[in-house]
Design goal:
By secondary structure, this protein is of the alpha/beta class. The protein has one domain: Glutaconate Coenzyme A-transferase (3-Layer(aba) Sandwich). It contains 5 helices and 13 strands. A 10-stranded mixed beta sheet has the order 4-3-2-1-5-8-10-11-12-13, with helices on both faces. A 3-stranded mixed beta sheet has the order 7-6-9, with no helix packed on it. Strand 11 (176-179) and strand 12 form a beta hairpin.
């Protein structure tokens, strides 16, 4: 047994703090907005210039002009404001965003992140990922533990082009939670998903790690 995508999003939401400004990446990270803990008030920021992103609209209520950076339709909140992409990236590059929750293709033991391209395949480009990992104070990655081939996505060294070096603080997969602290110490396994053993996660993780289960 392991966590579902919803479980992973719910676990990532536990990292959110009251008063945070947060950027959510495409995929599972977007789902984190559904699990913001009660009593935690924060602002979701989108690279395309929307500050105060609301939840997804109900069927039939979508406004095609109100979208997030992943081109998903979202809703406005009373506190929502808009700005240019230049101002939006100024927030990111200026260190004003507390946390980014992103997906990934590979994460290395030292916190290196690869999440924007696979050589030889068509890609749309890195979007705001490189700016986010360089400017945001804390980066949490939520991703599947292994590729479809069975190869681990938690690697000793990234083989794909990097989005950023020494930038990942935490990784959450369907198997557990790792603390990487941007490579300032050896990776530490903090939590296991229900039914997952240390032996299983060791077999599916390329890098060595310490066990610090809470």
């Amino acid at each position: 047994m392991a966590w579902t995508r919803e479980d992973m999003a719910m676990r990532a939401a536990k990292e959110l703090k009251d008063g945070f400004y947060v950027n959510l990446g495409i995929g599972i990270p977007t789902m984190v907005a559904n699990y913001i803990p009660e009593g935690v008030n924060l602002i979701l920021q989108s690279e395309n210039g929307m500050l105060g992103t609301g939840p997804f609209p109900y069927e039939g209520e979508a406004d095609p002009d109100v979208i997030n950076a992943g081109k998903q339709t979202v809703t406005e909140l009373p506190e929502t404001s808009y700005c240019s992409s230049a101002d939006s990236f100024g927030m990111i590059r200026g260190g004003h965003i507390n946390m980014a929750i992103l997906g990934a293709m590979q994460v290395a033991a030292n916190g290196d992140l690869a999440n924007w391209m696979v050589p030889g395949k068509m890609v749309k480009g890195p979007g705001g990922a490189m700016d986010l990992v360089a400017g945001v104070r804390r980066v949490v990655v939520v991703m599947e533990h292994c590729e479809k081939t069975g190869a681990s996505k938690l690697v000793t060294e990234c083989s794909l082009p990097l989005t950023g070096a020494n930038v990942v603080d935490m990784v959450i997969t369907e198997l557990g939670v790792f603390d990487l602290a941007r490579g300032t110490h050896a990776p530490a396994l903090l939590e296991l998903a229900p039914g997952v053993t240390v032996e299983e996660i060791t077999a599916k993780t390329q890098f060595a790690f310490t066990v610090a289960l809470t």
